[in-house]
Amino acid sequence: MPDPAAPDPVAPGPAAPERVPSAAPPATTGATSRARVVRVDRGAVRVVPADDLTAEPRRAALPRDGLVPLPDGTSVPPAVGDVVDIEEVEVTRGEPRVVALHPRRTALVRDSAGRTSLEQVVAANVDVVLVVEHLDPDPAPGRVERLLTLAWRSGARPVVVLTKADLVPDPDGMAAQVAELAVGVDVHVVSVVTGRGLDAVRDLLAPGVALVVVGPSGAGKSTLVNAVVGRDVMTTGEARADGRGRHTTTHRELVPLPGGAVLIDTPGVRGVGLVAEPDAIDAAFADVAALAAACRFRDCAHETEPGCAVRAAVADGELSERRLTSWRHLLAEAAHQARRADARLAAQERERRKQVTREYHRQIRGPRGARG
Fold first, then answer.
1. Are 257 and 263 in contact (CB under 8 A)?
2. N or C: which end of the chain has fewer CB atoms below 10 A?
3. 3-class SS at 273?
4. pTM
C-alpha cells in the first residue's frame, strides 16, 4: 500500500521562475564625432556638429550622474558652448551619448543660487562678453562692476552696451559715468528705436566669434540681439508697469548668426554670485588696483595708514568712496566664496575616504558578511 506521505512521482513540482532577459545596453557603432553643445536639458544635451553650427540640433544622452570627463580625469557638468565627443549607437538601440568634454578656452562662471558653494558655468568657449545695462531706469554701478569682474575672470573680452538711449535726455553723460567704472573696456550707447550704436555692436559679430549676453531683466538684451542681427532670433517681452523687466529668456541657448558668429543668450540676472580671483577684480578695478600699488606699505589696509595713495585719491576726489567700497566688498566676497569652495572640496574628500573605507570593509567581510 503506497505511503500517503510519499511524494507523487507523477505530479509536477513547483514551476521554475521564468527568466526574464535583462535589457542589453545600447550597442555602439564605435564611431565618435565632435559636437558643440547648444542647450543643456535634464539628463541630456542638444548638440550640433562642431564644424556645422547651423545644422539641426539633436539630442545626446549624458551619463547617469550628469557629469562628463575631461582629459585630466575630472568630470564636470556640460555647459552651453562646450565642445564634446559624441559616441554613436545603433539607431534601434538608443540615442547617441556624450563620452568626453574638451578643455574650455574660456568660461563665464558664477556662484550658483542658494547657499551652496557650487560654481555654475554660464557659457563656455566664448570670445566676447556683452554686459548689457539699461539707461532707463538708471544704470546700477555695482551690477556693472560685478558683471565686468565675471567677464574678466572668464578670459573673454568684456564689452559694455548701454541700451534705451532714446529714453534719457543725456545718454552720453550717463555713458561717461559708466565708462569710469569700465576701465579698459569699450562702452557703446545704443538705441534700438533710432538705430544709434547698432553698427558698433554688429562689428563684434565676426565669423567664428562666440558672444554671450549678460545683464538684468528689462535691459533689452533680446531686443538688442534681434536689432543687431536684423531678424527675430530671440523672444522679447514688454516691461512691467514699474519699468522693471520680465524674464523672456528662460534658458541658455547657442544661436548661430548670419555671417558665422554665434551668440549665447542668458536669462536676466537678479543677483550675481561672484566667482573671481584677485587678478579678475584687479582688472575690473584697474584704477583702484593702480592706486593700491602706489601705497607706502605693501599690506596697506587703506584706512588710516600714512602714505596711503587710495585714501589720498578719495580725499582729492579722484576716486569715489562708493567705488572703493565696492572694490572692498567684492574682494571680501570673492575670498568668502573661495573659503566655501575649499570647505566643499574638503568635505568631498572626506566622503571619498569614507567610501573607500566602507568598500574595504565590505570586501573583508565578504558578500554575506562572513568572517571565515
1. yes
2. N
3. strand
4. 0.77
